[in-house]
């Protein structure tokens, strides 16, 4: 599959803070990516770099084979929706949509109108009078109806209630099936989007911690729950990510999976072995410290 975005040794520092630290990865054509990581991990900075909204400190970015910075032909094929999207003060919902129609070559006005109805947005309401959720819905509508070959959503759904978020996921899934494109979703609601994601990139402290197909990640970690002694025996030799004790019961999260014999052995010992969810895996891989300002990597 063709790479539409290639990043090599990319770094962005703000003073002494390395927001993105020597990152390399590819985004392939027509895939849905999850860009995951804790607060301050560097996700927004990375998306700003990809869309030419920040200048890199070091490294290479190629989008459709070209540098995106001040590159009209590349940027016309990208859509970046962020939670903090700002619009001119006098704009109403319909003005935002009319501007988006001019900005994005693949804009589908019928799809946009159906989404406006789905999300119950009042077309003539001034944007500055929209509720937080309505403002998020407006961003989601622009991002979907733009049908940009590379679409990045940076947590645009923070204000959306659970029903509206599900509507977004459903419309996104249906629309990418019909009009394939590369989508990057940055989110903390990992369990909610897990089934949408085809590939996961996990960022931690500005570095890539995981870059893997979502299917492969489903067998990446397991929860082993049962009497402490039996759990210890079964998890010996595995990389332990976390252990918690609940009275006489121990639950250990380990990297990797178990063969059929071990699963049978576990059952005989009264131990349950379940695959970790994507969210459990991400939490266990990134709970080692509270992210804070970090020193620029010395080179
Ligand atoms: N303009 C800036 N000036 C200084 N530091 C910045 C700037 N933008 C980002 N940072 C710092 O870079 C790091 C990464 O921030 P970034 O916003 O990319 O993280 P994030 O993963 O998007 O976080 P969140 O999930 O909380 O939105 C943080 O330490 C942040 O304080």
TrEMBL record:
GO-annotated molecular function: ATP binding
PROSITE patterns documented for this protein: ABC_TRANSPORTER_2
Residue ranges of domain ABC transporter in the record: 5-230
Iron among keywords: no
Keyword set, alphabetical order: ATP-binding, Nucleotide-binding, Transport
Protein name, UniProt field: ABC transporter ATP-binding protein
Biological source species: Luedemannella flava
């Amino acid at each position: 599959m063709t790479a539409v975005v290639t990043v090599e040794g990319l770094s962005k520092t703000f003073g002494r803070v390395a927001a993105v630290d020597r990152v390399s990865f590819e985004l392939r054509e027509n895939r849905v990516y999850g860009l995951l990581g804790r607060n301050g991990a560097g996700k927004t900075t990375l998306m700003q770099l990809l869309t030419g909204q920040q200048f890199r400190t070091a490294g290479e970015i190629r989008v459709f084979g070209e540098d995106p910075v001040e590159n009209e032909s590349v940027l016309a094929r990208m859509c970046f929706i962020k939670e903090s999207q700002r619009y001119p003060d006098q704009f109403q919902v319909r003005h935002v949509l009319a501007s988006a129609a001019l900005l994005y070559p693949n804009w589908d006005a019928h799809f946009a109108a159906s989404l406006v109805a789905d999300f119950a947005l009042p077309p003539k309401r001034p944007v500055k009078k929209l509720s937080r959720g309505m403002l998020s819905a407006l961003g989601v509508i622009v991002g979907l109806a733009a049908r940009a070959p590379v679409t990045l959503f940076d947590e645009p759904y923070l204000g959306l209630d659970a029903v509206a978020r599900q509507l977004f996921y459903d419309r996104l899934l249906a629309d990418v099936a019909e009009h394939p494109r590369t989508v990057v979703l940055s989110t903390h609601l990992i369990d909610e989007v897990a089934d949408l994601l085809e590939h996961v990139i996990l960022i931690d402290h500005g570095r890539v911690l995981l870059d893997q197909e979502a299917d492969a990640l489903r067998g990446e970690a397991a929860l082993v729950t049962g009497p402490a002694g039996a759990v210890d025996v079964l998890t010996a030799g595995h990389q332990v990510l976390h252990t918690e004790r609940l009275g006489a019961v121990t639950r250990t999260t380990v990297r990797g999976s178990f063969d059929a014999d071990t699963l049978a052995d576990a059952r005989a010992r009264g131990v349950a072995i379940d695959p970790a969810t994507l969210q459990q895996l991400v939490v266990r891989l990134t709970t080692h410290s509270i992210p804070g300002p970090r020193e620029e990597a010395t080179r």
